[in-house]
Amino acid sequence: MQYPEPIAKLIDSYMKLPGIGSKTATRLAFYTIDMPEDDVTDFSKSLIAAKKDLHYCSVCGNITENDPCDICRDQSRDQNSVIVVEQPKDVMALDKMDDYHGLYHVLHGVLSPMEGKGPDDINIKTLIQRLQKQPIKEVIIATNATPEGEATAMYISRLIKPAGIKVTRLAHGLSVGSDIEYADEMTLLKAVEGRQEM
Ligand SMILES: [Zn+2]
Prior knowledge:
42% helix; Helicase, Ruva Protein, domain 3; binds zinc ion; DNA repair; Dna Topoisomerase Vi A Subunit, Chain: A, domain 2; TOPRIM_RecR; 198 residues; Recombination protein RecR; five-stranded mixed beta sheet
């Protein structure tokens, strides 16, 4: 027996989400059908709003409703340092720390020859432009401690060091292969405090 088309479509949609197989998708689809109509309407509206109202900051690449984003516009932040991260999620994680009040730059990925991802495929060009325009003195590279994250850190370091900008790398109390987004505040704080010059 086949599911009625609206359910089949809903299952298909859920299966497009990461980590969701057909079993979970089916469970979620049936759960959705049982939800109050208002909740489903709210849910669908927030999906559309998230897609429509959010975009990437033209300065730092973070996800934002306003362009430039709130962090880039905040003049009370330390304008001399930038933490370079892989994903917008990493900004959220790092900005929970009370002890860092600088800026961020989101690469949207890492260099990965295996996946055919080169320097033009991640947000490096705008970083270079920022370094020319803004009074940035230190770039703290906080890509994850994976082989691709390390290679990306090296690449960026070689690219910007000749301009006389200090380049540091987060200390890895973060264990190898660990993701910044899952690290607790204390670990992140130690990683930033213990950063080392590249
Ligand atoms: Zn921004």
